[in-house]
Amino acid sequence: MSVDRATFIEEIAMQQQTLEKLHAMRLSTMADALRDQSQQPEIGRLSFDERLALLVDVQHSAMLNTALAQRLKRAGMRQTACVENLDLRTPRGLDRGTIAALASGQWIRQHRNALIIGPAGIGKSWISCALGNRAARDGFSVLYKRLSRLLDDLAVARLHGRQARALTTLARTRLLILDDWAMVKLTAEQRRDLMEVIDDRHGRASTIIATQVPLDRWHDMIGDPTYADAILDRLVHNAYRIDLKGDSMRRRDGPADDDPGDGGAENDEPR
After folding, report:
1. How far is CA 16 from CA 1, 38, 68, 198, in A?
2. Quick check: pTM over 0.85?
3. Own/partner pairs, 22-28, CB within 8 angstroms, 24+ separation
4. Which residues have C-beta within 8 Å of that of residue 19, sequence separation ≥ 6?
């Protein structure tokens, strides 16, 4: 066997071992990129550092994409929406400056809140999910819940002795989206649970409230004045506020973003 052939066989064996080790370390994307490099004749023109940088870039991008997909899955947002597709042409009270500030993500770093209030079908849920999507892309953990579902989940967790863990998870979530806020009057137990959630997050995380119930009716829907004052004090005073108005976008264009039965499969906001 010639020296060149023996060297070639050794290189192939070494590369195979490297590929197996990369897979064992769960660096499959880098392994695939290394295999692709070995099949490109011109790759030899690059230095070792340049080839390594290409491999690291590919693996890093794959890891970021996987992490984003996991954040979006855990968020459970009902709409596939993004701020880049937000409809700013339809007159409904949207302020470009406010949307730009919210899209920047700085408000989450500052632990501020956002209130999105308006009639049914105007786009509250879609906008909330678009901001949630932006936050997830910025690396923040996000959770979307209808308020009624959140309170039901906490009640079930209490029955199974898991409420403390559930509250801890909520407190650590950087952005909590509470949709259909204050649609029905709360019970005493629900008021206490909601107070726990809001108080745990105050000054530590951000919350989006989306509702068609006007702010001046929130006291009545929460029920107890003391709890209502405490909850609203923590939510409202440092919040961005978006007051939407106008005709239902759902009536103009068919199923729209606030409809409880709408899956919201499209990225573009319904118009």
Report:
1. 21, 11, 31, 54
2. no
3. 27/59
4. 31, 34, 35
